[in-house]
Amino acid sequence: MRSPRIDLEVVKPLRVVLCAVACLAFAACNSTTRLRAGAAPVRDGATLRTGADAQTGGLDTTALPETTDPAGGTAGTSGAGGAGADTKAVAPKPAAAPNSALNGSVKIGFGYPKNLSAAYAAFGANNLTGDDWKTYIEPIVSWINTHGGIGGRAVTAVYHSTDPTAGTFQSQAEQACTAFTQDDKVFAVIGTVLADNEVDCLAKSGTPFLAQTAVLFDHTMYDRYPGLVFQPFMISAERLGVWIDTLFAQGYFAASAKVGLVEMDTGVYHHFTNDVIKPHLSAHGVKLADEVAFNAPDSAAGVGALFTQASNAVLRFKAEGINHVILSPTGGAIPFVFMPSANSQNYNPRYALNSLEVPAFVTQNAPAEQLHNSIGLGWLPASDLFYKEIAHGTNPAEDLCYAITRRNGDEVKRYCDGLFFLKAALDKSPVFTAAGLKAAVDTLGTSYDSPWTFGTRFGPGRYDGARQARPLAFVDACTCYRYTGGLIDVP
Questions:
Q1: Sign (positive/negative) of CA torsion 53, 76, 212, 422?
Q2: Torsion sign, CA atoms 374, 380, 381, 384
């Protein structure tokens, strides 16, 4: 039996604020996880994208032989779910124009973590992502500037680092917003979602926010700040009913299934449960037997309470005979506290999860016997799979990000995605303003290829871009998740 350990990274709370586990769980789960010895990767018949699905939003790419992954081995090169196929990554072409041809500059804010070693040590974890993420962002900015900039302007990076162990998530968000809107006014911000007040503060100053964290937003967020909040890689709460429908297609709800649900006690998750999950369950004749909402701490210091809540929830579900547990996405926080407690109490339900629970993180931090027979839906390969199994040769934008950074984890995917997205939109905008950005995004359609997900679609009112996902399942032989089917359209 494996002892659960925490492979933490930085500040990625949920829609409001999560515990330190979730804050430190998501972005670099794959650069902090290692393929276990003897866990042979497999091909799974992934569909290669061609034509419209292989667009890169105008980014120049060219072939580059596969190289060694800096996180500890050769990166996977199969279709999106295994390693071993003979494919190649892509690299930037020579610049179309020298920097001197750029028409001025634009300030872009980058939020990133610091003091990670201390954060990891506080939870008895190893810091494998490095303490200075700024070094990962710099080559992406450099590539952008040698490839025409953004809208013809050179990017001037404004950096703000956040220590996840210092203060509350609300105070950290306030500091980040002040840095980007007052200390050094930027055009747009690419970074993690520290707390809701960060989104509110940036919007008040008219600053577009590329919310590059797998935090679940519903349409009230996009509608409240139209054209100021973007998640190119994301599926909003209202569209995520496809997850429940896919579970039925995968045979998750057998006649003997007694279903419970765990979630965080915040508005968006109640909305997700009541207006999305329950109706989709009901459409298939299933009703939740019980549901438990965890109180979300407002700082890393408050994480301890989650373990008590998890123990109580396990006792309750076990007593009620619940044998299927749906994990409303928490960035890996609830599985981290719930599954070890369930294991110690000999409670082994069948779990259902999705990309926002960060399957690759869960496999490294939960007992393997808890994960047996669990299934889900994934649209973020860098969060679903081990870093060595991340596909190369199927997504030009993902390959380009790897070629620039030589990193396979999603600690770099977020910054590549943010900059590639801004470039794809603003390169076609006649005006360099927030309104111009919104207007350009409204016309992107399916042309933007994200390095963080399979395919995207944008249009008026559609600012969460992911449009495709794949079923996934836990594989006992490798103690990992792998995709088990082809691409599914997400309306």
A1: negative
A2: negative
**Residue pair 186/158 in contact by the 8 Å Cβ criterion:** yes
Phi then psi for residue 136, to 5 deg, are -80, -30
pLDDT digits over 415-429, tens only?
Answer: 999 999 999 999 999
**Strand 468-475 to strand 350-354: parallel, antiparallel, or no bridges (unpaired)?**
unpaired
Distances (CA, A) of 55 to 153, 395, 398, 399, 490: 23, 9, 12, 13, 18
By C-alpha distance, which of 213, 281, 268 is closest to 237? 268
What percent of the residues of the chain are helix, what percent strand, and what percent coil, each to the nearest 5? 35, 20, 45
Question: Does pTM surpass 0.85?
Answer: no
- Interval 274-324: pLDDT, tens: 999 999 999 999 999 999 999 876 666 666 778 899 999 999 999 999 999
Residue 402 is classified by DSSP as: H
For residue 488, the number of C-alpha atoms closer than 13 Å in the C-beta half-sphere is: 24
Cβ within 8 Å of residue 105, ≥6 positions away: 149, 153, 154, 155, 156
Helix (H) or strand (E) holding 149: none
Give the 3-state secondary structure of residue 197.
Answer: helix
Which two tokens mark 215? 């935090």
Determine the Cα–Cα distance for residues 166 and 51; give it in Å rounded to an integer: 48
- Candidates 85, 90, 87; CA nearest to 63 is 90
pLDDT tens digit sequence for 23-62: 444 333 333 333 233 333 222 323 223 233 333 444 544 3
